[in-house]
């Protein structure tokens, strides 16, 4: 799933290539992805992309005051096309991964660039909205603070933690609490902070809050810098190469050499290092426990 660093890089990628360009057409292949109908998606045709911004994991193209907002969900991606002039119009209901195509007007060289929003797998959750204000998108309106803004201080994080009795892993993934962190970077943050993913949020000391804040901001900023300037097609590989524990079950921790372990859930899993994070004790994996009975 694209998280804050990848989405920020995609937004920057589009700022460099789409701002100042006119939208020629927006073609919908997967109608389930389109979540709004007024204004119609056709209203974007002829408008100019004036800015591109990020709200948590949402990408927002401001087109002369009308906003094209997308959330890539778990298996979505943005694929830039240098020239779509020869591409046939998108047909609704196709079986390929293509969900939405945005065509831009030709440039001086005659090339007509644009981008495709694609989604792999059977769980179709990619979403597109056409709105007059991004706050009309429910997921945007309910977002918690962005961890890379100046207002996200250790004191602000302490207030968030004190108000919750949930496990820290779940809190970090909750977009209504902190915007932009998902399953992968929550694992990475907790490994850097040397904290158990099962630690209860309200139990953090002031020193632990400071350590967690530093881990959140540092991990995300480092990931953003690694992704900066990369083509959209290269971001997935960059993300995977930079992860230290997430997705690395059975490998050695690069910090201490212990074996990275996993806890599985119904539709996701987390990875952690016992030595770095849980005092050497493996966490209970309920799904594995059931298999052993």
Automatic annotation (TrEMBL):
Q: Which Pfam families match?
A: Fapy_DNA_glyco, H2TH, zf-FPG_IleRS
Give every FPG-type domain span.
244-278
| Reactions this protein catalyses | Hydrolysis of DNA containing ring-opened 7-methylguanine residues, releasing 2,6-diamino-4-hydroxy-5-(N-methyl)formamidopyrimidine
Domain (Formamidopyrimidine-DNA glycosylase catalytic): residue spans on this chain: 2-93
Q: Is DNA repair given among the entry's keywords?
A: yes
Q: Which SMART domains match?
A: Fapy_DNA_glyco (SM00898), H2TH (SM01232)
What molecular functions are annotated in GO for this chain? 8-oxo-7,8-dihydroguanine DNA N-glycosylase activity; damaged DNA binding; DNA-(apurinic or apyrimidinic site) endonuclease activity; lyase activity; zinc ion binding
Q: Which cofactor does it need?
A: Zn(2+)
Please give the InterPro entries that the UniProt record associates with this protein. FPG_cat (IPR012319), FPG_N (IPR035937), H2TH_FPG (IPR015886), Ribosomal_uS13-like_H2TH (IPR010979), Znf_DNA_glyclase/AP_lyase (IPR000214), Znf_FPG/IleRS (IPR010663)
The record ties this protein, via Gene3D superfamilies, to:
1.10.8.50, MutM-like, N-terminal
Entry's Gene Ontology BP terms: base-excision repair
Keywords in alphabetical order: DNA damage, DNA repair, DNA-binding, Glycosidase, Hydrolase, Lyase, Metal-binding, Multifunctional enzyme, Zinc, Zinc-finger
Is Metal-binding one of the keywords? Answer: yes
Q: What PROSITE patterns does this protein's entry cite?
A: FPG_CAT (PS51068), ZF_FPG_2 (PS51066)
Family per UniProt? Belongs to the FPG family.
Query: Could you tell me what this protein is called?
Result: Formamidopyrimidine-DNA glycosylase
Q: Which organism is it from?
A: Acrocarpospora corrugata
């Amino acid at each position: 799933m694209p998280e804050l660093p990848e989405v920020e890089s995609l937004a920057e990628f589009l700022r460099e290539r789409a701002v100042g360009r006119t939208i020629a057409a927006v073609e919908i292949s997967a109608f389930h992805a389109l979540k709004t109908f007024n204004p119609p998606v056709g209203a974007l045709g002829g408008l100019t992309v004036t800015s591109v911004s990020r709200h948590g994991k949402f990408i927002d193209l401001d087109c002369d005051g009308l906003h094209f907002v997308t959330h890539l969900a778990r298996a979505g991606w943005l694929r830039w096309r240098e020239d779509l002039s020869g591409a046939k119009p998108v047909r609704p209901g196709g079986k390929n991964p293509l969900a939405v195509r945005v065509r831009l007007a030709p440039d001086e060289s005659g090339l007509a660039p644009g981008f495709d929003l694609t989604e792999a797998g059977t769980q179709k959750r990619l979403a597109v909205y056409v709105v007059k204000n991004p706050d009309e998108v429910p997921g945007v309106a309910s977002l918690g603070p962005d961890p890379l803004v100046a207002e996200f201080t250790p004191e602000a994080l302490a207030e968030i933690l004190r108000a919750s009795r949930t496990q820290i892993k779940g809190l970090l993934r909750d977009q209504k609490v902190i915007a932009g962190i998902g399953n992968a970077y929550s694992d990475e943050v907790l490994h850097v902070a040397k904290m158990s993913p099962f630690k209860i949020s309200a139990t953090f000391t002031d020193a632990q809050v400071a350590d967690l804040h530093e881990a959140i901001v540092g991990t995300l900023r480092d990931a953003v810098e690694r992704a900066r300037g990369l083509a959209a097609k290269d971001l997935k590989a960059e993300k995977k190469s930079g992860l230290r524990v997430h997705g690395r079950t059975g490998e050695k921790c690069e910090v201490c050499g212990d074996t990275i372990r996993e806890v599985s859930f119904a539709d996701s899993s987390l990875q952690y290092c016992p030595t770095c994070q849980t005092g050497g004790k493996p966490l209970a994996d309920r799904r594995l426990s059931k298999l052993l009975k």
